[in-house]
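Pilot study result, target chain (246 residues):
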Amino acid sequence: MTQPSGPADILPGTSDAQEPPPIWFLAPEGFFALPLAATPEERAELSHSFVRELYSRGNENIWEPAAPYYAAMAELMAGTGISYSAMGLFSTVEEDSEEPDAEVIRHEGSAGVAQCALTVAAVPTDQDSDDTDVVAQGILAILSGDPHNDARWLDLPCGPAVSCVTLREYKIKPELTESGEPVDLLTGQIQVHVPFPTGPFTAVFTLHTASTDYWAEFCDLMGAVLRTVSFTDPLADSPGSAVEAG
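Predicted structure:
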């Protein structure tokens, strides 16, 4: 799978006293953020730009009917605690090792695309600001109690975290498959819980994919995202740089 390179977005949270404190992370190239917003007008406006980016080779015949669909998806997520949701699309074309300087078309789908979904939510947790280790230990103990979970402790640059990997197999009915035969579909989920050191919340990063042939690449991708998580503005001390709060 062609690995995306470079940041595509940096997402601050809201700083309202009733809401989770800010959190920042970098979403690599290849992720397309859904039009999450507080009002229907904002969601409608963002959905139009979203479909033009997602279907960059399309036209109004595709964009116009697609925009309301994604605006409705964003509305369904309102009030669930999800502050970021994105689709990840990555070309499965392998880079030519004999021609390392050859141009790679990262979103060319004609040769195959590996897909995933990435969401970030803030969950209220009863903790003191300096109790992130205690919260992480409690999360690890709970998740480890399920034999179907592969739960592990993580030490991230921003602090302690707990990862939980699950694999599930679903049987697709014959009437829904191209071959007319039942198909087994294997899906994988990586969920990482990162306690806030700045307030009584835990950030939950979830990556879900049915493209399990590229599971190792998606694990690496999730690791790259997590290494950029910060609870302080990473550009605050950079001269001439500014980040606008969402």
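One observation from the pilot: The first strand starts at residue 7 and ends at 10. A full batch analysis is planned for the follow-on phase.
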